[in-house]
Amino acid sequence: MENQERKKRILSAIKPSGDLTLGSYMGAIKNWIGFQDSFDCLYCVADLHAITVRQDPKELRRRSLEQLAAYLSAGIDYRKSIVFIQSHVAAHAELSWILGCYAMFGELSRMTQFKDKSQKNADNINAGLFTYPVLMASDILIYNADLVPVGDDQKQHVELTRDIANRFNSVYGNVFTLPEAFVAPVGARIMSLQSPENKMSKSESDPNGCVLLMDKPDDIMRKFKRAVTDSGREIRFDRENKPGVSNLIEIYSAAAGISREETEARFEGKSYGEFKPAVGEAVVELLRPIRENAESLLRDKAELERIYKEGAERAAALAARTLNKVKKKVGLIV
Ligand code: AQP
Fold first, then answer.
1. SS3 letters across the chain
2. Where along the chain do its domains lie?
3. 23 C-alpha vs ligand 1 centroid, how far in Å?
4. Which of 60, 121, 202 to mutate to test the pocket of ligand 1 (most atoms within 8 A of CB)?
5. pLDDT, tens digit, 9 for 90 and up, residues 238-268
6. Tens-place pLDDT, residues 138-197
7. Which residues are catalytic?
8. Pocket lining: 202 vs ligand 1, CB cutoff 6 Å
């Protein structure tokens, strides 16, 4: 209908550079599920971004499929949202080349993630690591996404995407929608179980600090029983002075769907020894259906393939429109 407003479009991606964690689920994927009713959503497995750091090819393939299965089993509905694998839509890489000609060396050099990753991968500071934000800009702009749900570390890249889009639009007219970083109103920030001052992340070196989405119940329980707390006794939320306990409260509250205060009240007078396994059990129950559904999807390779191919086709159709327009604008023969 003509006067019906178009839903805002969301694009979000996670790169399969490690196994998904409880943090990726509680901080990102869980929000994605909720967005599906109010927004027009595209969710992608950013495998091209993953190869900016050297990957074992077999592992990368396993993780890409596992990540896709996890999206679906967690509640991303491939009929509502477009779910796809980045490298299946060649237009991302094509647009990325063009946009690279509108991104400045100086601004790319200022990206903090580039600086961090260069330090961590001093023996492989490749050009892909440097132009990573250009590919990300292409992922976003090719779909004219309005909103990009991101963690803090990616906000700078969304700003850069806007700068590139603005620069392009100022020469060629209104080609790209200017996207905004979207910080979801709810969304837990989950810290490592072993060093709660650091974010739980898929590249964490201590396996006990990080709960994987596909972890079995025994592993989850073991990790929570070993979780770092503090020398006090109270189960009270205080990030600064009690980071370990506060993180466990955050996790329990998110898993049980209650507030921090309710969690504190539920465990008032209980010891850490009682609290830690209770958090473990809540997480086991939260992740059980996701893992089981993902495992059965992964056994049905044909179905998974059907889903990602359909997703790629739908995404490619949208992407082709933008890419064609861009090519014409810059003077390529289409
Ligand atoms: N612990 C977390 N708490 C809340 N949100 C989190 N996210 C990740 N970890 C947490 C959110 O998930 C999305 C994907 O983030 P990511 O790919 O940057 O995940 P990561 O585990 O943090 O990855 P690494 O360790 O930084 O891996 P590499 O080095 O390969 O990039 C984001 O929306 C993020 O906010």
1. CCCCCCCCEEEEEECCCCCCEHHHHHHHHHHHHHHHHHCEEEEEECHHHHCCCCCCHHHHHHHHHHHHHHHHHHCCCCCCCEEEEHHHCCHHHHHHHHHHCCCCHHHHHCCHHHHHHHHHCCCCCCHHHHHHHHHHHHHHHCCCCCEEECCHHHHHHHHHHHHHHHHHHHHHCCCCCCCEEECCCCCCCCECCCCCCCECCCCCCCHHHCCECCCCHHHHHHHHHCCCCCCCCCCCCCCCCCHHHHHHHHHHHHHHCCCHHHHHHHCCCCCHHHHHHHHHHHHHHHHHHHHHHHHHHHHCHHHHHHHHHHHHHHHHHHHHHHHHHHHHHHCCCC
2. 2-187+301-330, 207-295
3. 7
4. 202
5. 999 999 999 999 999 999 999 999 999 999 9
6. 999 999 999 999 887 889 999 999 999 999 999 999 999 999 998 766 667 899 999 999
7. 117, 199, 202
8. yes
